Amino acid sequence: MLLSVQQAARRLGVSPVTIRRWTATGFLPCSRTAGGHRRIDEHDIDDLAKAIGNSNHLAAQLAREREVDVLINTSIALAGKIDLTDLLLEIAMRMTSLLDCHFCAISEYDAEAQSLITLAEYDHAGRRLPDASPYKLRAFPLTRSVVQDQTTAVVNVDDPDADPAEVAELRREGDRSLLMAPLIVQGETIGILEVVDQKRSRQYSRQELRLAGAIAGQAAVAIKNAKLFAERRRSDEDVASLRSMLTDLTERMPGVSAAGRGPDVLAAVAGAVCEAFGAISCVASVGGESAGATGATGGATQTDTAHVIVSTAPCGASQLALTLTLSRAAGEGQAELLGLIAAMAAGAIAGLPAT
User: Fold this and answer.
1) Confidence at 60, pLDDT banded by 50, 70, 90
2) Alpha carbon of 321 to those of 81, 216, 330: distances in Å?
3) 331 within 8 A of 241, measured Cβ to Cβ
4) What are the structural domains, with CATH classification, of the chain?
5) Which of 214, 234, 225 is nearest to 84 (CA)?
6) What tens digit of pLDDT does each residue of 147-176 get?
7) Which of 208, 249, 258, 293 has a CA 20 to 30 Å removed from the CA of 108?
8) What angle do CA 72, 129, 218 make, to 5 degrees?
9) Is 165 in contact with 141 (CB distance < 8 Å)?
10) What gap in Å lies between CA 193 and CA 103, rounded to an integer?
């Protein structure tokens, strides 16, 4: 229940002026109505009353100051991490230290698939654990509520009213308690933080839950910024790579005309494309003939990490096809460049004299 300034003052035995001063300095959390009136959660009043006791409010003030210090220090630490891996480690270390827990996992929310994908999981010593497989929210109703309703939740294995799916997962992993906090940016849930205590059930204080929620908010913004930075950096790298490829291919294409016809010219095309793209392999085929080339990897990359792109172009009465195998997903513009090269090669081959 939310209390007015006057009601809060009566509960604590202080003047309304004191309540206003405490809310203005952040010593006593409050919200505002549409009309600008202060409203204080009665649980915060109860916590403050216990801290004050029959003496003074020094203990409560020190606790609030520590809370503010944690938030400021965390904000500075997260803002200084641009690399996503470094940032995720910092978040995990902050959360496990704050809540005195053993593990922290940070997951990304896929709204279309209604699933969570683990970005990273660390123990309290900073060791990264193997990433868990993505999982559907429909199997975990409480997790779905955390994501969709944007609420923090705590699960203990000895709580008879806890979500059975979450309890079963905790028992399977040998854990005792789980805290889940949504990662929210501009009203949109982008993932969740999961903090696990392996040895004991937990009853977190309101201050701990408030801090966990605040740090999750800071973490969400930092993760969003780190991902945007990575995308921009990848885009810049892709543009530079495309320029290099174009230069390399421009120098190699005249060699296609000098290669003759049949498999020789197809091998020249495949070799030029393979080298320019730094690919695992490239196969060029037209009119029932084909030839291939392998790159520096020699095809050693396992197939489950390979990425294939194919481009075709009319070549006389047939079609020229270029099948390119890369060791990672094609960068921005690479598929379009392969299409351009296919068209150029098809034109060059079609223009060659018959032999």
Assistant:
1) low
2) 44, 50, 17
3) yes
4) 1-56 (1.10.1660.10), 57-229 (3.30.450.40), 253-350 (3.30.450.40)
5) 225
6) 999 999 999 999 999 999 999 999 999 999
7) 208
8) 20
9) yes
10) 11
